[in-house]
Amino acid sequence: MLSLNNISLTFGDQQLLKGVSTLINPGERIGLVGPNGAGKSTLLKIIAGHIKPDEGSINTSREATIGYLPQDGVEPDPGCSVYEEVERAFQEIRELEKRVRQQQQQLGAMDKESPEYRKALEQLGTMQNKLEQSGAYTLRSNIEKVLMGLGFGPEDFNRSTTEFSGGWLMRIALAKLLLQRPTYLLLDEPTNHLDIESLRWMEQFLTNYEGAVIIVSHDKAFLNTITNRTLALDRGALLDYAGNYSYYREKDKERQEHLRKAYENQQKEIRETQEFIDRFRYKASKAKQVQSRIKKLEKMDKIELDEHEEEISFQFPPPERSGAVVMKLENVHKQYDSNVVFGNLSYAIDRGDKIAVVGPNGAGKSTMIRIIAGLEDFDGGNREPGHNVTASYFAQHQADELDLDSTVFDIMREAAPKAKETRLRTILGCFLFQGDDVFKKVSVLSGGEKSRLALARMLLMPANFLIFDEPTNHLDMQSKKILQQALEQYEGTFMIVSHDRDFLDPIVNKVLEVRPDTTNTFLGNVSYYLEKVEEREKNRAEQSSSGSSDSGKNNGLSRKEERRLEAQIRQKKYRQLKPLKRKIDPIEESIEQKEARKNEIEEMMAQPDFYDDEEQVKDLSLEYEKLKGELVEIYAEWEELAMEISEIEEKFSS
């Protein structure tokens, strides 16, 4: 059990945490929520031991471990491959393996009749048992499973970490942490750089995680799927709710209603008390009663209403009507060096389309929308904007293009010179710039603040075609809701690359799935898309098993489309099985050789005259023990691979 005891922390003149206390029980999956600036990340850092509180303590059992993933991940060793960097999480296991090898070498040089030899042999057995219990023999397969779950392919394992962007480096740090399986797993915005597929894998992993998990996230769907308890930071206090995020919102609404009624009653009492004081302040006969009421007011704990109760909203500038076709791509070819991103991409966007762009990271989603926005050159084909189309584009990197010497308000005024100051301040407030924040220089803003400012600026610019690349990564729940409501009312056309299902579902009417070598369009929201993906995978597996050509069993697909799907299934199965079979073949050969030698030694040991030759007994006994240890390791590795192969075969044949 992990306990937080009266944790308090002050930054400058702001008391961020006020006497925070709670218990974290084994196996709990907790969502830590609250508005930006409430202290969520700070509290995680305190639990992780990265920040010392002004008052209070964190207590846990001696054997418990705490793992922490900050928002921006951890910088890896630039000299390591992806696999090597993740494997560094298991230095103790690798050190133990090294000691086992050294012990085996030392045994070979020792007198096998000596007490030292027997003692060393016992030590070797203890170390081998410890290795087996630590999962050393399944370590490689576990590392590969987690890396593939987070979106890395086998071809990425040996690539240098320097070849990957910040989002992928975050995944590497996340993989290390998940594999370490700490008793208490602290995750600060772990979904920011995940695509929908890796996000779903992550949900499954954390749902089955045996330790306690504490998550800071603005992804409501993610929190609802995983968490069974919610801790909410509210003006320094920690409120506890025995359910997921939706449960918390329901109960918090009830709490705020009770708070509002209590506030109104208290305000009435304050007014009446103050009226009595004002009325009888100078009457000697009432002096004692007046003083009593003055003291009562002074001692009264004033109820404060939540600051975020106020509803804020804004609307995009009314867009001019565009032509029926907003954008058309025809046979677009794009490649970076030898990497072909799109070989023959054709796609048309119609007026009124509200499109979510999804797919695995690295498939070309961001490249595609940059081509559509006219910000990325391509190597062949045509890009044809429609009539009277005015596009506006947002991506995280646009924060780097802001004028560092300007203030936050200057940036907004430049984008909309004729807008009223109240409107500019309202929009800035929607994106967490309040009060004197609007006069801060851009140069002092954090990366997240710059991204929010770039997004706010974009929303002031009249456009009838909006293009977003991960707009919600640095927004809190309220800001996302405000943007979501504005997009629901927007009368133009937009495309959004995002993994945030809860944000996308109410606002999109199409989903564009971008995968290597193909794109697919689904008429509906993201929930509908995910349902169809599950149906598609099921149908592919059934087709692979039966070889059926009945198009009626495939949602009305033509025979040509069926053949294409069947080919994709075979290719997908081949790609998944190939690296596993490449590994398991030499393992089976090694097992065969070692089993043959082990059987040979056992036959020799069964001979009556075997123990007549002491030197032979020593040498073969040592070799026999070594073979048994090696076979335990190899069989464990073989079983892991065989299970993976069996699961893949079953998936494609069930």
Automatic annotation (TrEMBL):
CDD domains given in the database record: ABCF_EF-3
Ranges of biased composition (kind: Low complexity): 544-557
Coiled-coil regions listed in the entry: 83-113, 584-637
Transmembrane domains' residue ranges: none
Domain of life: Bacteria
Region: Disordered, residue numbers: 537-563
UniProt keyword list: ATP-binding, Coiled coil, Nucleotide-binding, Repeat
Name the record gives this protein: Probable ATP-binding protein YbiT
UniProt organism field: Fodinibius sediminis
Source organism phylogeny: Bacteria, Pseudomonadati, Balneolota, Balneolia, Balneolales
